[in-house]
Design goal:
seven-stranded parallel sheet; two-stranded parallel ribbon; 9 strands
C-alpha cells in the first residue's frame, strides 16, 4: 500500500549552531528559534553585556546556549571560533549601515561597511565550509541580507552595494560547495522593528516611506524572521541553496 510523504524534520537536536550578532534584534531572534528547535547555540557578538542577557534568557526558556565575545572583523578570531566548534548551522546576523547620499560617502565609510557586510561574511563562509569539509559534515550557512540586496534605496548606495555583492557571493559559493552537501542561502528582510531601527520608525517621513513600500499593513517584527531562519537551518529546506528568502512584506513585488 502506498504511503504519504512525510514533512522533513525541523528538529535541530544534536546540531551545533553559531549565530553572530546574537545580542539583540534579528540575531537574538534567530538564536532563540534555533534553541527552541533543540540546537546548541553559540551566541556571538561584540556587546558582552547584552550577549550575556541573550544567553540568560535562552537558559530561562530551557534552551542550550553559550555566549562568546566576537569581533567579527577580526578574521583570526573568527576562524579560531569556527574551528573550535565546527557548527553545522551558521547564521550571520552581524551588519553595519552608514546611510547617506553616495556623494557624501567617505572612503572610511566604504571600508567600515564592506569590512563587516562583505569581507567578514565572505571569510565566515569559507572558514565554516572549510571546517565542515575537513570533518566530512553537512551544513547550512545563512546570511541575514536585506531586501536592499535586490533593489535600491534612498541614501543606501553603499549598503545596497554590499548586500547585492553578498547575494552574488552566495550563488557562487553554493555552486562550489553543493557537492559537499553544504548549503548557503540568505534571508532578505524588509524593515524590521528593532532597537537599532527604532529611530527610523520614529521619523514620520521615513516611516511613511516604509509603509508606502510594504504591501502588508505593518512593518516586520523579529518574530517574522525566526521561521525563515529555522526553515533554512533544517532538513525542511534540504534542496535550497544559492538563493534568498525575501521576508519583505511585498516590498520588492511592486
Amino acid at each position: 500500500m502506498a504511503t504519504l510523504p512525510k514533512l522533513p524534520s525541523m528538529d535541530l537536536n544534536g546540531k551545533t549552531a553559531l549565530v553572530t550578532g546574537a545580542s539583540s534584534g534579528i540575531g537574538q531572534g534567530c538564536a532563540a528559534a534555533l534553541g527552541q528547535a533543540g540546537a546548541y547555540v553559540i551566541c556571538a557578538a561584540r556587546g558582552v553585556e547584552r550577549l550575556e542577557e541573550t544567553r540568560a534568557l535562552m537558559h530561562q526558556e530551557g534552551y542550550s546556549a553559550e555566549a562568546v565575545s566576537l569581533d567579527q572583523s577580526n578574521l583570526s578570531e573568527l576562524k579560531a571560533l569556527i574551528d573550535s566548534y565546527t557548527p553545522e548551522v551558521i547564521i550571520n546576523s552581524a551588519g553595519l549601515a552608514r546611510h547617506k547620499p553616495a556623494l557624501e560617502t567617505t572612503p572610511e565609510d566604504f571600508g567600515a561597511v564592506t569590512d563587516v557586510n562583505l569581507k567578514s561574511a565572505y571569510f565566515l563562509s569559507t572558514y565554516a565550509a572549510g571546517a565542515l569539509i575537513r570533518q566530512g559534515k553537512q551544513g547550512s550557512i545563512i546570511h541575514i541580507s536585506s531586501q536592499m540586496g535586490h533593489v535600491g534605496g534612498i541614501d543606501r548606495t553603499l549598503y545596497c552595494a554590499t548586500k547585492h555583492a553578498l547575494e552574488g557571493m552566495i550563488k557562487a559559493m553554493a555552486i562550489e560547495w553543493g557537492k559537499h552537501a553544504i548549503r548557503i542561502n540568505s534571508i532578505s528582510p524588509t524593515f524590521v522593528r528593532t532597537p537599532l531601527t527604532q529611530a527610523t520608525f520614529d521619523d514620520p517621513e521615513r516611516r511613511q516611506w516604509i509603509m508606502d513600500k510594504i504591501k502588508l499593513p505593518r512593518p516586520a517584527e523579529v518574530e517574522d524572521i525566526m521561521g525563515a531562519a529555522l526553515y533554512l537551518a533544517s532538513d525542511a529546506s534540504a534542496m535550497m541553496t544559492g538563493t534568498s528568502l525575501l521576508v519583505d512584506g511585498g516590498w520588492t513585488a511592486g
